[in-house]
């Protein structure tokens, strides 16, 4: 029994919809978690984020441990209070950003040592330190084990070594986390695109026992088809009665195909990053708002989405803001994109509950490219 | 009789408080107009701007005529609809930005010819064209005459020539504008820091006859003391029964001292520009939020101001956002600064109405520097 009860209300094929109950609110699944990297979902107030329908956001341990530091966040009352987000927060372990952002990193059995991308200062992140930062200092609701994610493509020996180290770090994370009344711990499956490694990873995680299980090592450059090929088998290796979280994913088409394969949770910087770069995601696909064809397009991006950025501003105005380099353009497109992603998740939840997810999925594919 | 009735409800010395009635809403005076340069008050949604208590915003003819162009704004339903601001809008004439922003400008009796700072394209702005852009294409509520503003310090012959040209352009502006039911035209007093020129300018404007009168040619580098010296005599030269608008001003101390001298309206980029650069204006003065002394300051900027950015976020969080270069820091500080400026205007209106403006003014000065 997890501290956060997970209830599956309906399934259709491998797809499922339900709820995760937390002391800070209910997470409706499948759920998309906006990324609040450095204690802010970039360019948006938490009230704007909440208004899009987000039930939970993600915080990045790597960024927060460097600035303002986890200890400072703790002294200021924890991450929720610091950034004024009252709903649940999932924090990653910091491992992924250590590998991708810091200049130098060295992995040993004990820990990963790295240099800050901000000032070059040296830091050590062990499974135990990551738990301390996430659970005790930031006060995260859903805590992730420290893992090692290999880049893609990976040779099997390297993928095996990272998977095995991640499994051992998972057991150490569980020992450090213990059992808590109002926080939970997720393990992370690794194994790159090797089915045998994914199986072994899942078995070892289940032996340790977690409140939820993430699929790591995907969305690292392998592409949609290769990712779907892994998702054809990997989610089913994880316990059906626990949430399955696909880390760092993704585009709308990735979300739909992963939900079809039994995934319950997602996070990705795409909506906000794309928004800062003039890209708007819609039911018809992604629009480059700099394109001159929008210069006198008086229609809103998505009139059916109850977000001011989606419904109330014309494409012509958004085009003007983006062309002029106005911050408001970054704000409105980030806001709209998050609202669209939440509308997509909501549509999938409703479709699964009504037993028409396959029809929704076909329709979704057929509408792409109409923009 | 102006199309926008101006009612003075109370006076104290030269200070006055009242209302300007417009078809799009009431402007409470003294009023501060946030600057919506390129059809956006930078970094903020119009809903955020309205929530600060702004009754009217300003649009820049120079920026809008170049991008997206006044004709395009017209085709998209006018400036109010384009940017979703339902209250009144005052537009400047474009003259000031032509002189300060465009690479090359040439002034003749007929018009000013200039090169766009965006793409170098050549444009001509005459008094008649400025009226057409503001009143007919953008659909501004309060239209400003084209004027010529000399830089500071100016020699008297140059100041006289610019003042006289501005007076002739004022008469041409009036002829082009005519009389309208739901839009008004303001003249602009020039004359630099020469009392005789200010007098002659006022007399010539009054002879032409405008709905309101602006004080131009100030806030161009002369400093607070020199500006106050002009304000000791210049506002009184303008009709007492029409709104007086001090263009491009200013810091809170400038606003208080100008109100004390009979000014009713202001605009300035300071609150939003300062906000984008990490500066927060408070009753105690301006704070540099990058300063390390705020790193663990858990108090909000101004708990008494009913704006989320002023009341709900800690200085420590704002410090973190600014240090991290986060857009949300620019948004929240711009929002707070506008809310503070509106709170300042509201406090002055209340103080004048209650006959305690002089006490307010003394108290305001005594609190500065406490930060």
Summary, kept brief:
Chain A has 371 residues and is α/β, with parallel strands linked by helices. Helix content of chain A is 42%, strand content 19%.
Describe this structure in words.
- With 371 residues, chain A is of the alpha/beta class.
- The first copy, chain A, folds into two domains: 6-268, Queuine tRNA-ribosyltransferase-like (TIM Barrel), CATH 3.20.20; 275-367, no CATH class.
- Chain A has 15 helices and 16 strands.
- The first copy, chain A, has helices at residues 46-51, 61-66, 70-75, 79-83, 95-101, 127-138, 156-177, 195-208, 223-231, 252-260, 270-276, 308-311, 315-323, 327-353, 357-367; strands at 6-12, 15-22, 25-29, 31-36, 57-59, 89-91, 105-107, 112-115, 122-125, 142-144, 184-189, 212-215, 244-246, 265-268, 279-282, 285-288.
- In chain A, strands 4-5-6-10-11-12-13-14 form an eight-stranded parallel β-barrel, surrounded by five helices. Chain A has a three-stranded antiparallel beta sheet with strand order 1-2-3.
- In chain A, helix 7 runs parallel beside helix 8 (195-208) and helix 10 packs antiparallel against helix 15.
- Chain A starts with 5 loop residues before the first strand and ends with a helix.
- The mean pLDDT of chain A is 97.
- The interface between A and B is large, with 37 and 37 residues.
């Amino acid at each position: 029994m997890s501290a956060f009860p997970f209830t599956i209300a309906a399934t259709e094929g491998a797809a499922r919809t339900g709820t995760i109950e937390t002391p800070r609110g209910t997470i409706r699944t499948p759920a998309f978690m906006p990324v609040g990297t450095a204690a802010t979902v970039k360019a948006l107030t938490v009230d704007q984020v909440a208004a899009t329908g987000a039930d939970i956001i993600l915080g990045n341990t790597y960024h927060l441990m460097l600035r303002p530091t986890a200890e400072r966040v703790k002294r200021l009352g924890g991450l929720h209070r610091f950034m004024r987000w009252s709903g649940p927060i999932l924090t990653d372990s910091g491992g992924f950003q250590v590998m991708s952002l810091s200049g130098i990193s060295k992995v040993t059995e004990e820990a990963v040592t790295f240099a800050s991308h901000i000032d070059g200062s040296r830091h050590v992140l062990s499974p135990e330190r990551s738990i301390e930062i996430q659970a005790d200092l930031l006060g995260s609701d859903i805590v992730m084990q420290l893992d090692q994610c290999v880049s893609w493509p990976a040779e099997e020996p390297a993928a095996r070594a990272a998977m095995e180290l991640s499994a051992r770090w998972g057991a150490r994370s569980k020992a450090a986390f213990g059992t808590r009344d109002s926080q939970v711990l997720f393990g992370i499956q690794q194994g790159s695109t090797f089915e045998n490694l994914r199986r072994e990873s899942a078995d070892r995680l289940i032996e340790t026992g977690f409140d939820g299980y993430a699929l790591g090592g995907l969305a690292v450059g392998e592409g949609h088809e290769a990712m779907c090929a892994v998702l054809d088998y990997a989610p089913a290796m994880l316990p059906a009665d626990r949430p399955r979280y696909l880390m760092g994913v993704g585009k709308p088409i990735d979300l739909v195909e992963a939900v079809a394969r039994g995934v319950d949770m997602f996070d990705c910087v795409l909506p906000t990053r794309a928004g800062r770069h003039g890209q708007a995601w819609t039911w018809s696909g992604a629009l480059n708002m700099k394109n001159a064809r929008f210069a006198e397009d008086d229609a809103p991006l998505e009139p059916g989405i109850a977000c001011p950025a989606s419904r109330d501003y014309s494409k012509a105005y958004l085009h003007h803001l983006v062309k002029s380099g106005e911050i408001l353009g970054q704000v409105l497109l980030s806001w709209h994109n998050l609202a669209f992603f939440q509308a997509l998740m909501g549509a999938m939840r409703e479709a699964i509950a009504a037993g028409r997810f396959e029809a929704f999925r076909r329709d979704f594919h057929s509408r792409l490219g109409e923009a």
